[in-house]
Amino acid sequence: MSRPYYRPMPGTWWLTNRAYFLFMVRELTSVFIAIYLVLLLILINRIAAGPDAYRAYVTLLASPGMLAFHLIALAGALYHSITWFSLAPRGLAVRLGERRVPDAIIAGSNFAAWVVATLVIAWIVL
Amino acid sequence: MADQTITLEIFRYRAEQDSEPTFQRYDVPYRDDWVVLDAINYIKDRLDGTLSYRWSCRMGVCGSCGMMINGVPKLSCAAFLKEYFPNPIRVEPLANFPVERDLVIVMDDFIEKLGHVKPWLIREDMPPLEQGEFRQTPAQLDVYKQFSMCINCMLCYAACPVYGLEPAFLGPAAIALAQRYNLDSRDQGNAQRQAVLTSEDGIWDCTLVGECTVVCPAHVDPAGAIQRAKVTATVNWYRDVLLPWGKR
Fold it and tell me: What's the rounded Cα separation, in Å, for the pair B88 and B68?
């Protein structure tokens, strides 16, 4: 009679392998990006509430804690974007005629689109 | 050189006598042209005939001898002792699977999942044999060939934390195999497989950890297959929503 043994997966599985760890870091950056988006929505709400409310909120955003948070969120967003765009060739197998477009071009076009989008937003905001 | 030895710490579990698995240490002769499977065969032949494990071709073709070697899923026939010497080598059964005995895992779940994706050519029309074979150009073969190289060794399942945490997940090799047929110019079974691929336990469970592709000994790139299946499913969904009158 067979009695198989089931090995439970430890909660620390993502610490056992560098690739698992880097993956979990990328997942974790989403939390910071989500908090950043909430702060952005509050900003829009404060603008609608009038100049005084807006100025008070901007003062709050300039506090050291908020600046530190934004630096962490920026680092997280950069890490997430760079590692994610580098994975783009995995999902996109574009064929031109009989040849498959090289991975570097697929990833490169994603990075190029990112730079263009950043420049457009910077041009509108600044 | 001739007298050097290397230690293997091997996972032992015998259901009839052990309630918990243990590790047993064996000292085997060290040879720089030996792989872990050679060392285990030496143990079986000379030291301890009770050790159970699977193996067959000892040349990376059959996919039978997958084991966790120092925590990494590998074919034991392709893991050279010299990569680890002089440190001991810890050998365990493939992760994420139940253990039947020692290094032998229960693979029923995997075999069942392979069948779910209908891994054969599906035709809406089956022309009579007299019309000859289905012809295919080298370019058409090239589209799916990589995904057809899978040897069903299950290393990708052992490397996949999603499968470890969500055993219902269809998993890397089965999805890669589905892609192998979906991308075949002779096949017309896309719609049938799509239901399985886009089900709750299908492609959307994958979070792209990517280790399945790293450990694959046949360079199948299951992670790539899954992401491409996601792109196809997404394009089809938008097509259905935006162009409901159009037929795919």
Answer: 14
The DSSP 8-state label assigned to residue B9 in this structure reads E
Tell me whether residues A9 and B231 touch, CB distance under 8 A: no
Interface A–B counts its CB contacts (< 8 A) at: 67
CATH number for the domain whose boundaries are B5-105: 3.10.20.30
The overall pTM is greater than 0.95: no
**Lowest mean per-residue pLDDT among A37-41, A69-73, B114-118, B125-129:** B125-129
Residue B208 and residue A38: Cα distance in Å, rounded? 26
* B108-242 CATH choice from 3.20.20.150, 3.40.50.300, 1.10.1060.10, 1.20.120.910: 1.10.1060.10
Q: Comparing A8 with A37, which gets the higher pLDDT?
A: A37
Search chain B and give the residue with CA nearest A84: B208
Cβ-based contacts of A19 with chain B (< 8 Å): 209-211, 214
What domains can you pick out in chain A, each with its CATH number? 16-125 (1.20.1300.10)
Q: At A96, is the secondary structure helix, strand, or coil? A: strand
Task: Using pLDDT thresholds of 50, 70 and 90, give the confidence band for residue B209.
Answer: very high
Question: What is the ipTM metric for this complex?
Answer: 0.86
